[in-house]
Design brief:
- By secondary structure, the protein is mainly beta.
- The protein has one domain: 5 Propeller (Tachylectin-2, Chain A), CATH 2.115.10.
- 1% of the residues lie in helices and 38% in strands.
- Strands 1, 2, 23, 24, 25 and 26 form a six-stranded mixed sheet that branches. Strands 14-15-16-17-18 form a five-stranded antiparallel sheet, with no helix packed on it.
- Strand 29 and strand 30 form a beta hairpin.
- The longest helix has 5 residues.
- The relative contact order is 0.18.
Length: 449
């Protein structure tokens, strides 16, 4: 595959960079706020009745009585009960999967909720929506100022949606998996994983356009894209890995280009991952076209995916990288999974600072350093939740998915968690994770060049 170097400004040139050990900058907890895990919202009045009870298809069959299917952490994490059961009455306000860099007119933050219950097949009754939220770190709460549901009244979606025959045509987690969001010129742009696609959306939730991912004349598809079947061939009919679409999509100040980043490496012709690099490609929202410019992001050893991606100035940006672990390493299971231990604890959860003005000869973006989300100082005891197995004076984010990051000012960044309701339980062994917002003081990271 030919790697094209960024061309959006004269600073983005292909120059060899000297390899050096990456700097780990300190981070201090400056604020902690949360939305309780068991927070639900009513669907719109004109939504199908089916949406009033969500999560009906998360088990082996259909469940029509609320609270009859206990949630657990899944096989990789010991199937520990999380204390919540599906189906849910209403829609869970969970799975926070992206911050928009630009604030709303009232100063609130656009926050995206993902596809529902983690898969296309189990989320046909999970509505898709975004919010305007304002965390109050002094009080430890988060104000949800508005929730807007996505809908397709003008038939812009190029395939049959789950609620195709309805008048309202609300979108669900069987249609898209929205994972990243940006606000530009009074409209929202959403990056999603199933296509992968980029969605242009009005502030009232109406879909205005849907853009497929193009590599020249070739459309890049995932195994969950329309038209892909059981007989389709990996590496030929689809090259984007399952759950490997656009997890992060940054909006670049100045150029106003969108830079969606694939969560996982593309597949080669043999159907296996072609290396470990994540591709980041430029999309021009003003023209509705892919520019052809791109770079690559190298995951650190031990990282398996990214969680979010947002610029802090015209060239530097924050990227969350993570492993698939959950829980404190001090409680790692010594043998078989058990209720009192974590079989796959969290080991690598970072926010990395990159500089897109520095691209090496192979197309890799420069990593300027990172903070360790498993080693955050908390000298003023600002943490509002106890973490089982934690050290005194240390705050951690021991979750599988941490999927929101943005710059707040020259000293602070804000990070939030995708709690995968009701499947994740990182702070406790047996309690569903809350939606946490974390304010971090990281002046050295933000000043790095």
């Amino acid at each position: 595959m030919t790697i094209r170097v960024l061309t959006l400004c004269t600073a983005l040139t292909c120059i060899p960079l000297t390899a050096a050990a990456e700097i780990a900058f300190p981070a201090t907890l400056a604020g902690h706020a949360l939305i309780p895990a068991a927070t639900f919202i009513a669907p719109p009045a004109d939504a199908p009745k089916d949406a009033a009870l969500s999560g009906k298809f998360t088990g082996a069959g259909r469940a029509m009585e609320a609270g009859t299917m206990p949630g657990d952490t899944g096989a990789n994490h010991g199937k520990r009960p999380t204390g919540l059961s599906m189906p849910f009455e209403g829609q869970p306000l969970q799975g926070l999967s992206g911050f928009a860099m630009n604030l709303a007119e009232d100063g609130s933050t656009f926050v995206l909720t993902d596809n529902g219950f983690g898969a296309k097949g189990n989320s046909p009754d999970a509505l898709l929506f975004f919010h305007r939220m304002t965390p109050d770190f002094a009080a430890g709460t988060v104000e949800v100022k508005e929730t807007v549901f996505l809908r397709d009244p003008d038939f812009k979606v190029p395939f049959r949606i789950a609620y195709e025959g309805t008048d309202s045509r609300y979108l669900t987690g069987a249609d898209f998996d929205p994972e990243s969001i940006q606000f530009l010129n009074g409209e929202l742009w959403i990056g999603e994983e199933f296509g992968p696609y980029i969605l242009r959306v009005a502030l009232d939730g109406k879909v205005l356009d849907v853009y497929p991912t193009m590599d020249g004349e070739t459309q890049l598809k995932s195994p969950e894209a329309p038209g892909i079947s059981a007989t389709s061939v990996a590496g030929k009919d689809w090259t984007v890995q399952r759950s490997g679409g656009y997890e992060g999509m940054a909006l670049q100040p100045g150029s106003n280009l969108l830079w969606p980043m694939l969560e996982k490496p593309l597949l080669g012709e043999d159907g296996q991952p072609a290396g470990t690099a994540l591709r980041v490609r430029a999309f021009d929202p003003a023209k509705g076209e892919w520019t052809g410019a791109e770079f690559k992001f190298a995951l650190a050893e031990g990282a398996t995916a990214i969680g979010d991606f947002n610029f802090i100035d015209e060239t530097r940006a924050l990227v969350i990288e993570r492993d698939n672990g959950e829980g404190a390493a001090s409680l790692k299971c010594a043998g078989d999974p058990a209720p009192d231990c974590f079989p796959m604890p969290a080991m690598l959860k970072r926010v990395v600072l990159i500089d897109t003005a520095q691209i090496d000869a192979e197309g890799f973006v420069k990593r300027l350093g990172h903070i360790d989300l498993m080693n955050i100082a908390d000298p003023e005891a600002k943490a509002r939740l106890e973490t089982v197995g934690s050290e005194a004076g240390k705050f951690t984010l021991p979750f599988v998915t941490i999927e929101d990051v943005m710059k707040v000012d020259d000293i602070h960044i804000m990070v939030a968690v995708d709690n995968n309701l009701p499947y994740s339980s990182g702070r406790a062994l047996d309690k569903a994770a809350d939606n946490e917002f974390v304010l971090l003081s990281v002046p050295e990271l933000l000043a790095a060049k």
